[in-house]
Amino acid sequence: MLEFDGSTLEGGGQILRTAIALSAILKKPCRVFNIRKGRKKPGLAIQHLLGIQSLAQLCGGQIEGGFLGSTEIIFYPGSEYKRSISINIPTAGSITLILQVLTPLSHSLPFPIEVSFKGGATDTFFSPTIDYFKYVFSRNLEKVGGMVEVEISKRGYYPEGGASVKAKIHPAKFKPINLTEREDFEQLLIFSGASATLKNKKVAERQIMGVKEVIGKLKLPIKEKVKYYETDCPGSHICLVAEFKNTIIGVDNLGKLGKRAEDVGKEAVLELLKEEKSKACLDKNMGDQILPFLALIKEKSKVTVSEITNHCKTNMWVIEKFGIGKFETKNNLITWLPTV
User: Fold this and answer.
1) CATH of domain 1-80
2) pTM beyond 0.70, yes or no
3) What are phi and psi of 247, to 5 degrees?
4) Which CATH code for domain 282-340?
5) What secondary structure does DSSP assign to 301-336, as a single string?
6) Which residues are part of the catalytic machinery?
7) 84 has which bridge partners?
8) pLDDT tens per residue, range 307-327
């Protein structure tokens, strides 16, 4: 049985998500202890627990230690796969983090997997927003042969959640990539949204105003999408997507009580400009999120990332413990070298 110390490097939930995802694919039981030791509240939060339970539901696996606050679990992967699963999230648990757990295994199956979410948050703190998942993560995943479709019926913000989302994860035809050159910039997409209760304050429009205050003089080709949603509690989000001929980079940000909407947009675009300056093909968040999928490619692959973060180093460590290959890094270049 493979064992993972959850306090290693970044010490967060990514260790758990990657370990059990690859465990399910490779059919190697795993034990994860010191779960989220690096967090203020260690142990399983709702999205981590539901992620494990959902993966077990999908593959017919078994869990020991699967309860809120647990700091140790053992996951036994199964081989009886369902074509559809339903997930109820009673809090503002992150939908995108649960999808991160389910997507690698679903891509490895010979038929599409349908996942329905009732409750939870599409846009919450310390996780990718659903727009980032749709317009950055999923589109970059297509470059390695994956495909995830997401349909949002209702948005959910922190702290109430209450979202309604369906995802369809298709079988992947994994292929090697050499994603090292962006090529020419094409356009900037801005997705800005907020609860309907914030429409009179023009929160979504003001978030875009904050973006334009920073980049107005650059005269970039921009497409904007402003939308208001009926939600269970007030909230707002913005996602900036920079499209290049050969890749996509993105950032997101959330509104917060007491923060000006314009500042939400400014923070996002300043982060995007920092990502752009690196000249890398993948932003720092996509850099660690793509690693489990590189690990499923049977041939050498390369990507450049804006920053090799602790999240990224942690994911490499987890993946290499499965003995299926290794990563080499040089500056901001990551090379995957499979051994099986």
Assistant:
1) 3.30.110
2) yes
3) -165, 180
4) 3.30.1370
5) EEEEBS---HHHHHHHHHHHTTTSEEEEEETTEEEE
6) 311
7) 114
8) 999 999 999 999 999 999 999
